[in-house]
Amino acid sequence: MLIDPEFKAAMHGTQPAALDPKVRAFVLGMAADAAKFPRRDTVSIAEGRDIAEQVRAPWAKGGPAMAQTQNLPVPTRHGEVQIRVHTPLERRQPGAFIYIHGGGYVLFSNDTHDRLMREYAQRAGMVVVGIDYTRAPEARFPQPIEECIDTVRWLRGHGAALGFDAAQLFIGGDSAGGNLALNTCLHFRDAGEAVFRGMVLNYTGFSTNLYRDSVVRYGAGDHGLSLHMMVWFFRNYLRRAEDFHDPRMNLLAADLRGIPPAYLVITECDPLYDDNVDMVARMQAAGVDVASKVYQGTVHSFLEAVSIAPVAGEAFDDTVRWMASKA
User: Fold this and answer.
1) Does the annotation count 245 as an active-site position?
2) Domain Alpha/beta hydrolase fold-3, which positions (predicted)?
3) 190 carries an active-site annotation
4) Catalytic member of 109, 175, 207, 301
5) 300 catalytic per annotation
């Protein structure tokens, strides 16, 4: 594991920040539903995914109606992956927002994130394309990154057929999906291809460093994402000890110069808070056009609480305003 150069002893007596009341209701509701099932790391991967889908399903329902939703296969070097293309009733931007779901590289899908993607589509007036990359352990690092790269390349060649301008693309994701989105941007930068107008990074995992103050404060499990689950995710996704130090996993050590503009949605009560604050500073030092906002009283995955939590709607609206400014 990576340890901060200025490693400090664990904090004592430090109270977590207070949760937004609606976000707290989301956390408690999710925990109550999850408690009906075995812990996901104690059952098979297939069972764990099914449990995750059932627990997430109520939060993916409702929300904006779409003019059209298509599920399509896309060829990649590792075989086909599925994409979901949401076209909103009202179009205000001609491009598309490519979105990559989180879930620790192991769980979740376009289904768990369906409402989240439809919220972006309706609020931005833009086509949203979700990528169902192959999850770990069936696909270990770096296969999901390569699948996302290949899918983006395919989308650039098929934008007209899908009803969007492939010259006006955004990319984003949450948690592990944000890692995949930033890695995709780094690949195209290294290839000398200007593909994206911007990227949206929602409470993203930018390193494998678990020795962080925010992990100590918020990683016990009562704020959603736990330290235990993070270790389980890494155990399923990474092949070798060296992978923990690979710049594609330790993005805080990556060369960030020349990447597209970025907007970071940062959750206050999140084990990944420190990673995100540090990434903003690293991007600024690299000359990246970066904007960010810390959403007070929120937890990892809080955007999924949009049906009950106004702060989630605020984050969606802040993000689509930022995207409109970069279009």
Assistant:
1) no
2) 98-303
3) no
4) 175
5) yes
